[in-house]
Amino acid sequence: MRSPSKLRARLLISCCVLALVDSSALAYQEQDLKASEQVSTQLVRDVKDWISKSGTSETKAADTSAHFAVDHSMMPGIWVLQASGSRYEIRATRPFHLVLTYLADTDAITFRQQKYLACKQVYDQYLHDVFRDNAKSSLRGDPLKEVSAPEIFSATSSGLCREFGKLFPIPQELRDNRNQSANNAFVFFYFHELGHISKRHRLPDATTFFSATNKAAKDRAFLEYMKRSRQQENEADEWAVNQLIEMGLQPQHLFNLPILGILLASTGIDCATESISTHSFAITRMVNILKTVQTSSEKKYKRELPKEMKNAINDFEVFGRKVSEKLKCG
After folding, report:
1. Rounded-to-integer distance, Cα 193 and Cα 42, Å
2. CA proximity to 174, closest of 165, 182, 185
3. Degrees (nearest 5) of the Cα angle 279, 282, 286?
4. Cβ of 158: how many Cβ atoms within 10 Å?
5. I need a labelling partner for 254 at 20 to 30 A (CA). Which of 17, 140, 261, 263 fits?
6. Contact call for residues 93 and 182 (beta carbons, < 8 A)
7. Mind listing the pLDDT tens digit for each residue in 290-318?
8. What is the DSSP annotation of 220-274?
9. What predicted TM-score, i.e. pTM, was given to this entire model?
10. Cβ atoms < 10 Å from Cβ of 302
11. What is the pLDDT of residues 270-281, one digit of tens each?
12. Cα–Cα separations (whole angstroms), residue 94 to 76, 144, 191, 292
């Protein structure tokens, strides 16, 4: 397990976004997409088995009503649709787990060699730019950009960040922690979608969604789907955390930088981005997730979180409030 004091600092560092960078991207490698699809499918099989054995009645009810499939859209994401009656479809796109792995890769390197933190920040900003540009392009029906792996993106950089790119693929000894981090993030987002089912949130109809005649139309439908209320997103986050903790996931696994990375890619630290995605402001949402981890785990285990974890939550909350005030987010 990682040192909580280092994680505390890195939760804050991960939110520091640098100047805009070139967001041109090379295509995904087909073998990487196939591997991502296989990992996503196996992860959900394992999660469904875990739920059947250890899940609460709420989790079991939500999960048994949901069919999972990997979607071939190029926009990284996961979502849930109303299928028919009380049946649902949870879909994760092929690049989704792959992008979580990219984020976990950069985290694994910079955790060991903090001199490259600025390069991780540049890469995080690049992801945000691609997500933002794709949201706009999809609404216009324009082609979407694909996300480059850190080593491919860094090859277009110079100096220290070009050197950063040469550290990938990451060493074998870092891969177990990398995989666990990416997988934990994927599982959190899967449970988030189950939360929408359990909370009976309004969901788009799968027939309408899949009647889109081409990929651009489908991506536009996906963006429309994403325009749900902040309250619903927070409710689904809280439900996911509560169920995962109740099922035995240790709280440190939800102090997860790839989760934060996806939230930042979706909204950055610019609340104006929410005109495209109404998912909550990323920092506020992560604070809510971490505070729910604290209350849920303390309730289950009848003891306080370790001091360093509590300090991380407090520091992150203060940081988020300062940023929100500066940007005048509502």
Report:
1. 17
2. 182
3. 110
4. 8
5. 17
6. no
7. 999 999 999 999 999 999 999 999 988 88
8. HHHHHHH---HHHHHHHHHHHHHHHHHTT--GGGGS-HHHHHHHHHHHTT-GGGG
9. 0.86
10. 7
11. 444 444 344 447
12. 7, 15, 18, 29
Both tokens of 123, joined, read: 């890469």
SS (H, E, C) 144-205: CCCCCCHHHHHCCCCHHHHHHHCCCCCCHHHHHHHHHHHHHHHHHHHHHHHHHHHCCCCCCE
Neighbours of 34 (CB within 10 A): 11
Structure tokens at 232: 């619903």
Cα separation, 330 vs 287, whole angstroms: 16
The distance of Cα 284 from the centroid of its chain, to the nearest Å, equals 14
Cβ neighbourhood burial of 311 (10 Å; 0-12, 13-18, 19+) = middle
| Tokens found for residue 31 | 């073998």
Token digits of residue 18: 């640098």
